[in-house]
Design goal:
Rossmann fold, 11 helices, six-stranded parallel sheet, alpha/beta
Length: 285
């Protein structure tokens, strides 16, 4: 299968390129090749690659940056996605769009299923939701994949931030009332790779099993990495204060992929263990 992967310089896109090249004809592209907010350039690039599938990972993922510049978030995450979708329509390609748990408002008391009503409450979530609509409007053959709280090797994410602050001798204040499923980038890439080979189009939640508050997540990372004696001050979202308001409860349930297709991601704690082992974090305390 000829596959184009956008955002190939990012952690998820890069991992997918590496993973899928073993069995598919893969073209990885990023901003150096074309700007997804440019309709003509996007159409030309997709026509030249002539993919059978486009996995669209490119996005503005700085959640607080989206809150500060919501127009840019819409240009990239909504209209940029729409440009990719229309180009897929033109060449007859299927599309996989990577979305977010932040399309939900976080008011549900149980994990969100794939077809629960969406109601984004911040500019990032709204722009990703609008991207979903653009895909639905243009295409019949699509995968919408929602995920949450990604952590990746070589990236800047919650795990690295917590460990960096501890090593720098800084104090930690972490919120207790924001809950979701921490998800390992490599596990997500494996799941997406398996999903797009099924031909079972639709909406999917792909996250590591279970859920945690930001506080619980940080505590587990420190305990596993050898910093069990390091204290964390529990605070609330209101006390923390940030440009973007996250959904307080953003846990996704992987029902469709797991129950219908047998695509399951391991518990998030096991994923953190594997991540830290590969980073050899526990060797330096």
């Amino acid at each position: 299968m000829r596959v184009m992967i956008t955002g190939a310089l990012g952690r998820l896109g890069g991992r997918l390129v590496e993973l899928m090249r073993a069995t598919h004809d893969v073209t990885g592209v990023d901003i150096d090749e074309f700007d997804i907010t440019d309709p003509a350039a996007t159409m030309q690039a997709v026509r030249e690659a002539a993919p059978e599938l486009v996995i669209h990972c490119a996005a503005m993922t700085d959640v607080d940056g989206c809150a500060r510049n919501p127009d840019l978030a819409m240009r990239v995450n909504a209209y940029g996605t729409g440009n990719i979708a229309l180009a897929c329509q033109a060449v007859g390609a299927a599309m996989a769009y990577i979305s977010s748990n932040e399309v939900f408002d976080g008011q549900k008391a149980t994990p969100y299923l794939e077809y629960d009503p969406t109601n984004p409450i911040n500019p990032y979530g709204y722009s990703k939701w609008a991207g979903e609509q653009a895909v639905r409007d243009a295409l019949a053959r699509f995968y919408i994949v929602r995920t949450s709280w990604l952590f990746a090797h070589g990236g800047r994410n919650f795990v690295q931030a917590i460990l960096s602050r501890v090593r720098a001798g800084e104090s930690l204040r972490v919120v207790t009332d924001e809950v979701a499923a921490p998800t390992y980038n490599d596990d997500l890439a494996d799941a997406i790779s398996a999903l797009v080979q099924t031909g079972r189009y639709g909406v999917y939640h792909l996250v590591n099993e279970g859920s945690a508050s930001r506080y619980d997540f940080a505590r587990y990372v420190l305990d596993t990495a050898g910093y069990a004696s390091t204290p964390i001050e529990p605070i609330t979202l209101a006390e923390f204060g940030r440009p973007s308001q996250p959904p307080p409860y953003g846990t996704l349930r992987n029902f469709a992929a797991a129950e219908l297709l047998g695509i399951r991601l391991r518990p998030w704690e096991a994923a953190v263990d594997a991540f830290l082992a590969r980073e050899a974090v526990g060797e330096t305390k």
